[in-house]
């Protein structure tokens, strides 16, 4: 008699197996959806007036500096826990990005505490959804290991009854599950371990790839965001309050540049939505 792994093991071992598997599955899907559909920490772009004012301030600052050291254009320096951090100017959003923020080329937005853009969730991973991403990959690791262990147990129990080759022949779905889990468990568990390391040291993937900070406090490029304690770093990343979203979902989208008004000679300007028939004087319409 052929049977799948879950009903067979529920009868042979314990009926709690499908319950645990269902809980893990729904937790994985819940954290996946929460990561995909939540605001990662998008920073609003500057309005045309704000961008023009900021450009004016930059020109004044670079023009009035005299002799000696002249700061590079489009950057600012701030001190965080004794460490000098440069704030870079975003030419797309027209703002000075806050510390740890970066512009995502795929989402075309500046994101607070930018970690990376994850194609599997279809969203950036940043300040507001990092904990949900971490819980997603961690629970997915448990689910993959759980399925892999149950499939192996199923094959072993069936082998004791009818032999190994017959067990493989009778349960082709279990064999396929074992192969898929075997090749995927290493990458998933490895990714969970990597992000566990990042959380314990209070770093982001972006900072780790660039080698921005050193884990040793005595070095010049020490991490100013680390609390010096693994437990504190984990609590801040996973249990701290979630900052409110800066996106105005009910607001109107404003154009990046002001639309020029139509000149008085009746010719439509570039980008104007007024039709040619609307620009005909009233006297000519009556004459026609």
UniProtKB/TrEMBL annotation:
Keywords: Acyltransferase, Membrane, Transferase, Transmembrane, Transmembrane helix. It is a multi-pass membrane protein. It is found in: Membrane. GO terms for biological process: protein targeting to membrane. The keyword Transmembrane helix applies. Residues 86-210 form the Palmitoyltransferase DHHC domain. The chain crosses the membrane at residues 13-33, 132-155, 175-194. Its EC number is 2.3.1.225. Residues 250-288 are annotated as: Disordered. One of its GO terms (molecular function) is protein-cysteine S-palmitoyltransferase activity. PANTHER family: PALMITOYLTRANSFERASE ZDHHC14 (PTHR22883:SF28), ZINC FINGER DHHC DOMAIN CONTAINING PROTEIN (PTHR22883). This is Palmitoyltransferase. It comes from Rousettus aegyptiacus (Egyptian fruit bat). The lineage of its organism: Eukaryota, Metazoa, Chordata, Craniata, Vertebrata.
């Amino acid at each position: 008699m052929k049977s799948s792994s879950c009903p067979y093991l529920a009868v042979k071992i314990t009926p709690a197996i499908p319950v645990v598997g269902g809980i893990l599955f729904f937790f994985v899907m819940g954290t996946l959806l929460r990561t995909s559909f939540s605001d990662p920490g998008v920073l609003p772009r500057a309005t045309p007036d704000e961008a023009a004012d900021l450009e004016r301030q930059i020109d004044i600052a670079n023009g009035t500096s005299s002799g000696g050291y002249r700061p590079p254009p489009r950057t600012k320096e701030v001190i965080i826990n004794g460490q000098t951090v440069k704030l870079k100017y975003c030419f797309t959003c027209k703002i000075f990005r806050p510390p740890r923020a970066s512009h995502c080329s795929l989402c075309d937005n500046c994101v607070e505490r930018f970690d990376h853009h994850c194609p599997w969730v279809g969203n950036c991973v940043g300040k507001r959804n990092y904990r949900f991403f971490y819980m997603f990959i961690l629970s997915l690791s448990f689910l993959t290991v759980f399925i892999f262990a149950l499939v192996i147990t199923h094959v072993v129990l069936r082998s004791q009854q009818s032999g190994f080759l017959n067990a493989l022949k009778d349960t082709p779905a279990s064999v396929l599950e074992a192969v898929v889990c075997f090749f995927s468990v290493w990458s998933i568990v490895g990714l969970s371990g990597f992000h566990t390391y990042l959380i314990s040291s209070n770093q982001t993937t972006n900072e780790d790839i660039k080698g921005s900070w050193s884990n040793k406090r005595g070095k010049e490029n020490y991490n100013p965001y680390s609390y010096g304690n693994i437990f504190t770093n984990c609590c801040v990343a996973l249990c701290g309050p979630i900052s409110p979203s800066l996106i105005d979902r009910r607001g109107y989208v404003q154009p990046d540049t002001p639309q020029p008004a139509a000149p008085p000679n009746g010719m439509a300007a570039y980008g104007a939505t007024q039709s040619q028939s609307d620009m005909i004087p009233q006297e000519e319409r009556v004459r026609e």
